[in-house]
Amino acid sequence: MSDTDKRFLALALSLGRRGQGNTWPNPAVGCVIVRDGRIVGRGWTAPGGRPHAEPQALAQAGPLARGATAYVSLEPCAHHGQTPPCAEALIAAGITRVVAPLADTDPRVSGRGFEILRAAGVEVSTGLLAEQAAHDHAGFFLRAGQQTRPWLTLKLASSFDGRIATATGESQWITAPPARRMVHALRARHDAVMVGAGTARVDDPSLTVRDMGVTRQPLRIVISRRLDLPLSGQLARTANEVPVWICHGPNTDPSLTSAWTGLGARLIPCALNGRQVDPTSALHELGRLGLTRIFCEGGSTLAASLLHADLVDELIGFTAGLAIGAEGLPAIGALGLAHLPEAPRFALSETRALGPDIMHRWLRVPA
């Protein structure tokens, strides 16, 4: 495959990322139709997961799709659902070549889309930018695969010495506006924003995306064993406007169950791990309900439980140039480690300056 193939497929991948956070439970796919070196159609998965990227790009291309090449960021679907298979749509439009980085892991597709195309005489090229595409679709693959859970990004905004609040609980604001704006952009690229009950009680967060022009807000998720969250807080007051899901333990107070249900929240029973909601159970339930990408903003107890359970796929830190001291609240709660080899490790993926702060992104180190 040529550098031209790489350029057009990279564009398809970038278009697909525009849908991240908006397409669950479907993958966020991008498609570019090229004829005689000129782009004649492009599209990406619409909010809610439909229409898919390929029919939108084909509609834009019209008759110019005949004899063209389709660059798609994931194997075209092969199953009949609410819409016909995209592989068949490409064939019907007269596409003669398809370039896609890798196969879909969904068992309803998993190579069948490529088989349908090849059987119809369409040339299929795969493997280009596969690693990049695998990262883009990691949440969809995790949910559709054996782990049956969403991709989890853990965000920590802390002082230079790893504190997220003073001893009195003051935390606004450790980082400056550029870092906080980036957090809103990251929220927008995830299906849901998640916090623990302590953060919900102390900070009274809205967990919405603001000043970014989004039309579809991510879900808000709270992990709360007893449902003992403020019924007059921002989450409660806006539960009918932006969905609130609460992962809780068994035997909750019936009056709290009734109150939160009445406010419009969705209650999700989960197993316990000791005295806390088991994070593995919670993520499996959230995956069962269709979520593919979750952005967790703490607090320290929830962060520790997710790390201890080896559920964090991506770690994003925002570090400010101030020191709070040992009496401050640590960004990560107790992990109970006795030896360094037991510590969860991540590989540095990116660093950048954001105003006076530093953002650093880390990815899970494969076992």
UniProtKB/TrEMBL annotation:
Tagged with keyword Ribonucleoprotein: no
Query: What InterPro entries does this protein map onto?
Result: APOBEC/CMP_deaminase_Zn-bd, CMP_dCMP_dom, Cytidine_deaminase-like, DHFR-like_dom_sf, Eubact_RibD, RibD_C, RibDG_C, Riboflavin_Biosynth_HTPR
Q: Where is the CMP/dCMP-type deaminase domain?
A: 3-124
Q: Which residues bind Zn(2+)?
A: 52, 77, 86
What reaction gets catalysed by this protein? Answer: 5-amino-6-(5-phospho-D-ribitylamino)uracil + NADP(+) = 5-amino-6-(5-phospho-D-ribosylamino)uracil + NADPH + H(+); 2,5-diamino-6-hydroxy-4-(5-phosphoribosylamino)-pyrimidine + H2O + H(+) = 5-amino-6-(5-phospho-D-ribosylamino)uracil + NH4(+)
Q: How is the cofactor bound?
A: Binds 1 zinc ion.
Q: In which pathway does it act?
A: Cofactor biosynthesis; riboflavin biosynthesis; 5-amino-6-(D-ribitylamino)uracil from GTP: step 2/4; Cofactor biosynthesis; riboflavin biosynthesis; 5-amino-6-(D-ribitylamino)uracil from GTP: step 3/4
SUPFAM superfamilies on file: Cytidine deaminase-like, Dihydrofolate reductase-like
Where substrate binds, per the record, is at 171, 187, 203, 207, 210, 297
**Documented EC number(s):** 3.5.4.26, 1.1.1.193
User: What keywords is this UniProt entry annotated with?
Assistant: Hydrolase, Metal-binding, Multifunctional enzyme, NADP, Oxidoreductase, Riboflavin biosynthesis, Zinc
Q: Name one GO biological process term.
A: riboflavin biosynthetic process
| Annotated residues for binding of NADP(+) | 157, 173, 199, 299-305
Q: What are the positions of the active site? A: 54 (proton donor)
Looking up CDD domains in the UniProt record yields: Riboflavin_deaminase-reductase
List required co-factors: Zn(2+)
Query: Main role?
Result: Converts 2,5-diamino-6-(ribosylamino)-4(3h)-pyrimidinone 5'-phosphate into 5-amino-6-(ribosylamino)-2,4(1h,3h)-pyrimidinedione 5'-phosphate.
Q: Which family does it belong to?
A: In the N-terminal section; belongs to the cytidine and deoxycytidylate deaminase family.
Identify this protein by name. Riboflavin biosynthesis protein RibD
